[in-house]
């Protein structure tokens, strides 16, 4: 990546993340005041309602969120292709800065790299795909590197759960609002930091970047 790109201003990095209704735990709810031990258990549902969110971040802004509505099922190739064609493709046409030289990154999830999905992604980004089985390979299990994992999801969940959404409708509304508030200047700083992480990864011969704090 460092040898191929002088900068990363024309790159999209995409990913999905789960947002659970009970994603924020209020510590006050775990305390019980009594003159003696009430032996009360704090219970939470094993599988809380959630939404699966897709987004693509670049130095010029973010495309998303897109919600995979069926929260009981892992995203599959058919759903991913539907998102690419019905959501990402028209969004790209309206996105300032998108052009035929724009690169697109995705991780190695099966729904991204299946025989059904991959031809569609390659058609949308000919010779410009960063992915397993793509034009530039993307390493598996690499959350140290991708701007979505390293920045977007953690930042977004911190902001969303501060509002303590109670329903899926409210949760999705908060995700939309908070994602729309992420400025282009912040995205630009994230991508400047991305180069620093690549350089650190190269200096470590590809090892994970444990306990590394990068300049904000």
TrEMBL record:
One of its GO terms (molecular function) is nucleic acid binding. It comes from the Eukaryota. PANTHER family: HTH PSQ-TYPE DOMAIN-CONTAINING PROTEIN (PTHR47326:SF1), TRANSPOSABLE ELEMENT TC3 TRANSPOSASE-LIKE PROTEIN (PTHR47326). This is Transposase. It comes from Euphydryas editha (Edith's checkerspot).
